[in-house]
Fold this protein.
Amino acid sequence: MSKNNKNYYGSLSSLVYDISKPPGTSIDGDIEFYTQELIRRDGIVLEAGVGNGRMAIPLLRKGISIFALDNSSEMLEIYNKNLKKYNMQSDSVHADLKDFKVDIKFETIIMPNGSFCLIDRNHILDVLNNFKNHLADNGKVYIDLIFPTSFKPGNVHEFDFLIDNDDYIKIKNKSISMNWIEQKTYTELEYKRNSTTEIQHFSLWWYGVEEFKNILMNSGFKDIHIIENYNNVKNLNLKTLTFIFGK
């Protein structure tokens, strides 16, 4: 059986993500940063692209109310299992970012660790407008943008990912191309477990600082602030920019 998905986490890729990045796994200090930011804010936080709850569950344990959204039913299934495991509660919805609809105005919307860069460039205006429609008047949006600083076209990495005892997933990670004109990288990941093969077509878009500011302003957002590398001054190489803005 084979599944071919574009920027989608299916059953095998979701399982690998959950085992390699369980709830509480901080990436470059992002959980610490968001905990410090969100603990000062009131109301419900929408995490757009919640995944397995890597960030959401630590935030919930700090008393921060999280509403979870993801377009992967496989990831949401894992998220709900992790909620039970950690004795936490959170509402969630399986939907696409560009057209989800819920009867909630969120005080805060977050997309941590470059998830926004997985959205097709042709759809980002729809996503941003939908965020604005679901944002409270005094609300804030946090979006992390990442840059392909270590991407090398032609690299191929193959390894066996151990699940349990003799159970493993064979993974082949192929860095295919970097398109400087479209500002996009393309990676192909192949997961094999017994008779199941899952192929993940993975595109990542990046944006210049002024370019993204203009996109936000043209979408009606204002009060735009930028944080570099989650305020980690020890990290001298720019990898992550966090845009914070309101409407």
Q: What stands out?
A: The two ends are 46 Å apart (CA to CA). The helical segments are 11-20, 30-38, 56-61, 73-85, 124-133, 209-218. The CA atoms of residues 88 and 141 lie 24 Å apart. The mean pLDDT is 94.
